[in-house]
Amino acid sequence: MHLAENAGLGGARNAGLAEATGEYVWFVDSDDWVATDCLATIAKRLDAEKPDVLMLGHVKSRWDGSTGRDGYNWLLRRMPEEPFKAEDFPRIVYVFPSAWNKVIRRDLLTRLDIPFPKGYYEDIPVTFPLLLAAEKISVLNMTCVYYRQRRDSILRSGGERHMELVDQYRLVWERVLALGDVPDSLISELYLRMVRHLFYIIGSGRLGAHQQEYFTRAGALVRDTRPAGFATPDGVVGIRYRLLLSGSWPAAVILRRGWRVYKKVKQKARKAYRTTRRAGGRTKGWLRNRAVMAHYAVQRRRPLDDKLALYCANWGRGYTCNPKAIYEKARELAPEVRGVWAVRRESVDDMPAGVPYVVLDTPAFYSVLARAKYIVNNNNFGNEYVKRSGSVYVQTHHGTPLKRMGVDERALGQPAAEHRDALKLLMSRCDNWDLNISSNLYSTAVWRRAYPCSFTTLEYGYPRNDVLSTATPERIAQIRAGLGIAPDERVILYAPTHRDYQGRFNPFLDPSDLADRLGPGNRVLVRAHYFYNGVFKGHGPITSPYMQDVSTYPSVEELYLAADVLITDFSSTMFDYAVLDRPIVIYAPDWPVYQVTRGVYFDLAAEPPGLFASTADDLVNGLRSGAYDSAETTALRAAFRRRFAAIDDGHAAERVVRSVLLGEQVTAPNAIPTQASPPNGAPIDDAEEEAGADDAPVDERPMSEEERRADPVPETVTD
Length: 719
What we know:
Residues 669-719 are annotated as: Disordered. GO terms for molecular function: CDP-glycerol glycerophosphotransferase activity. It is a peripheral membrane protein. There is one protein chain. The protein folds into three domains: 8-181, Spore Coat Polysaccharide Biosynthesis Protein SpsA, Chain A; 294-464, CDP-glycerol glycerophosphotransferase, N-terminal domain (Rossmann fold, 3-Layer(aba) Sandwich), CATH 3.40.50.11820; 466-652, 3-Layer(aba) Sandwich (Rossmann fold). Helix content is 39%, strand content 13%. It is built from 25 helices and 19 strands. It has a seven-stranded parallel beta sheet with strand order 9-8-7-10-11-12-13, sandwiched between helices. Helix 15 links the parallel strand 12 and strand 13. It is elongated and about 95 Å long.
């Protein structure tokens, strides 16, 4: 069925319930999935016990690829084996208050007349009255639902929407009181559960500027619904309860600050202990770093410079890539915005004359980093970077992704926990992005999935590829002459990428041997990946007069223009070179290994941009016979270009400068295909996750033993 308009989860569930005809209903969210082996077991349990509600186990499927059981699962194990009522096990109110972890008798739900309300936390006003009204509750303690936790979940973000939790709990009490005779013990347990939930949101950091208003409304709710004779609990929960009951916001602020101070003092004490164990040069380096960070903190107190932009490419390896193209176009169109480059110390000598720069990790660098309004980078800065309000971070990337990126990247030789920690650090850096440059719809889909952050995508094409569309025949001839290439020579550019699984560089091809076998009339240019310091070390020294190492040549785009054919493997050079509509040959003997170890978004062997060779003999034969430029490979290249190079029209950098630096309205390229293929593999879900009660844990902090004894409430594991 299709609704005329988006009614949220509550509206969708109400509509589905109205059409349902079965004895039971199960509300499964569209972005979660059901364990295939649970359906028969559920059916047997329903048939055998005829419960009003069947409670189900679930597993969290986190954004970083890890899974974990929810903290309340131990509670399922402690529930009675035979069907029971909520008053027999009052702690049932601490089970995740969602609709998808329960199979419900349909006539009970319709008889209670408790429809799902609009807005966020919509499952709460249904879950609690339902559990309290059910005459028979059964438990199936097995994983039935895989609950997908999106990193950018609505309920994990801040804002006024969390105010609705207070309103939903008011509706809970209206419906519970309408049930009639509910045992006092059950009412008290539900009330305490509400208090814990309300206070958790206060400490979650999600309310932003609405904290005080939320606290006031939550306090009023706690006072209005306090059961007669309710005994104040001991421990931290009791303190939080009394704060809400009092309505004293200043007292709540003092308590929160005190807890923060305690944690900071504890962290600093541990850090000081570790510091005292440092010796010699390490201590000196640490002190120097502290001084630089203090300088950075001071600079961040100064106003942003609206006419200052900081550029960086390839982790500071020089003047290159998309940031270079944007910088040069900015000098032309927005000269009032001063551009400064951040480079490594060893790359200083490669900087062109007249291009301002600062050396990474120096006081000068942190001064510019702190004050520049615009940050243009094709990677991330380190964890010490603090994004300032009002600054604009433009992430340009440095290639169309074939290999898996971000949260999709596999943990090669890395323990799972260590990999998860690394991903969380990566995501914290990616949260700094404001604008994300994309060269095609395929990349847009990959970036959205691989980096689940709140950025705006600019589908403008790749600025670094502008020159490939605008270069004149005269300019191309000039580049070739500068490389010493004769007008009639066929130029073959061999540009392999690095491999994470290799201990050292091994391109699986001897370029000197390739050049000798092709013979006179051919020139093989070889270019190592920049990770290998500009030297092609694959097979020893150059021995062929037809081979030339261009690893240190400053512009890879000029090498593309000079080349008649590109040979590459998994490198993103294939996507850039496709703009020229010249033959591309994939030489990838280790393609199956790369697929398994690194992981890829599509099968390059099945969808190549041209000839795909797995052996050196196949490569040489393809180049000799002309198979590399046949009707078949031309058709493959055309399909490849439609998918990946359709919007690179030579004006990408101009679009970025006009949109970002000049604030002009920019029209996206017209050449975008009407249908772009998303990456193969796991589906990419663009739909924004509707908010329910699913992201509402019972408590934020693990309880101490003393607190657990004083208030033995199930602890929820939070991310």
